[in-house]
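To fix ideas at the outset, we first show an illustrative case, written as a sequence plus integers encoding its fold:
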Amino acid sequence: MWISEHTSPTALFVCRNRLQLGLSQPSLIIESEASGGSMKYVDFCLQARHKLFASYFCP
């Protein structure tokens, strides 16, 4: 199933993240730069009071 607010699957990943948040239960962020796209997803989770888990890997 493909759900999108846009006609092109490569357009605006931030909007896609908002849809994924609505379809998921808890969310897991593995690793992200401070300005990475995953941090936008974190913002959506916090605004929606969605369960959010994070993990950081440091070799």
The chain is about 40% helix and 10% strand. Helices lie at 13-23, 37-48. The first strand starts at residue 27 and ends at 29.
